[in-house]
Design brief:
By secondary structure, this protein is of the alpha/beta class. The chain has a single domain, classed as TIM Barrel. Helix content is 42%, strand content 10%. The model has no long low-confidence stretch (mean pLDDT 93). The structure holds pterin-6-yl-methyl-monophosphate (PMM). Pterin-6-yl-methyl-monophosphate binds next to β1 and β5. Pterin-6-yl-methyl-monophosphate (PMM) binds at residues 3, 5, 10-12, 41, 45-46, 78, 97, 99, 120, 122, 168, 170-171, 198, 200, 202-203, 244.
Length: 274
């Protein structure tokens, strides 16, 4: 899954593809680089971000999704709002990627159920504005798994088919670096929940802090791709269904190397609770 943020303020690529033409050209480029899906988002989820209204979000994403669909590029819609998801599906998007896992909008799961499309349920504890304060866990792996299981139950109750549900640990969303690494180490637990797993570490700030120079200044987002690649290889080797990344070509290259090596899967899914 290639990332296409049509926003002025995303932490990783904010402003680069804010205009429709630039966004469409970049979407086609990442498809050509090997993305199976181009994930189009019209609202920044960076920590502390203020929300935009649904009309603004729709006006950013729909023209891009329509143009990419016309160009034969499969897209997903990255939104927490059912209204935006509905407009995006109408314009041709084939999957709904909801970072709130249905918590932000009670109409999202029923909409996805009616559409019959795949649904990414990410682990989320609250809006970006205050998510850092929500990063408190006794056992992050067990709590993320349990809270994701509740969101899966809610989606099933709303009529979403089990085989359409994909789960995502939500790295960086109400999680600090220690939490992100714990979830990466114990992907077997999420893999054991019986749904495909999406892993999205790309350019996140914990990688910037990992790679900070001697002055302690975090590595800037566009210079975190080699670290992202390493996380993607670890995650795919563990058995995830997909990785959501900004740098698609290099990711494909790295995964080809892993595949050609014939290296076995790193972990076996755990069944049941951790
Ligand atoms: N992270 C961001 C946006 N959308 N979607 C899923 N499923 N999982 C994520 O971890 C996720 C996401 C924030 O990162 P960006 O600014 O690079 O898009």
């Amino acid at each position: 899954m290639g990332v296409l943020n049509v926003t002025p303020d995303s932490f990783s690529d904010g402003g680069l593809y804010a205009g429709t033409d630039a966004a469409v050209a970049h979407g086609i480029a990442i498809r050509n680089d090997g993305a199976d899906l181009v994930d189009v988002g019209g609202e920044s989820t960076r920590p502390g971000a203020e929300r935009v209204d649904a009309r603004t979000e729709i006006s950013r994403v729909v023209p891009v999704i329509s143009a990419l669909t016309a160009a034969g590029v499969p897209t997903s819609i990255d939104t927490t709002r059912s209204e935006v998801a509905a407009a995006a599906l109408e314009a041709g998007a084939v999957l709904v990627n909801d970072v709130s896992g249905g918590l932000a909008d009670p109409d999202m799961a029923p909409l996805v159920a009616r559409a019959g499309c795949p649904y990414v349920i990410m682990h989320w504890r609250g809006p970006s504005r205050d998510m850092n304060a929500l990063a408190r866990y006794d056992d992050v792996v067990a709590e993320v798994a349990a809270e994701l299981a509740q969101r899966v139950e809610a989606a099933l109750a709303a009529g979403v088919a089990a085989e359409r549900i994909i789960i995502d640990p939500g790295l960086g969303f109400a999680k600090d670096a220690t939490h992100n690494w714990a979830l990466t180490r114990r992907l077997d637990v999420l893999l054991g929940m019986g749904h495909p797993v999406l892993f999205a570490a790309s350019r996140k700030s914990y990688l910037g802090r990992l790679l900070a120079g001697p002055d302690g200044i975090p590595r800037p987002a566009p210079e975190r791709d080699a670290a992202t690649l390493a996380t993607s290889v670890l995650a795919v080797a563990a058995g995830v269904w997909g990785v959501r990344v900004h740098e698609v070509r290099a990711t494909r290259d790295a995964l080809e190397v892993w595949r050609a090596s014939g290296a076995p899967r790193l972990v076996k899914p755990s069944v049941g609770t951790p």
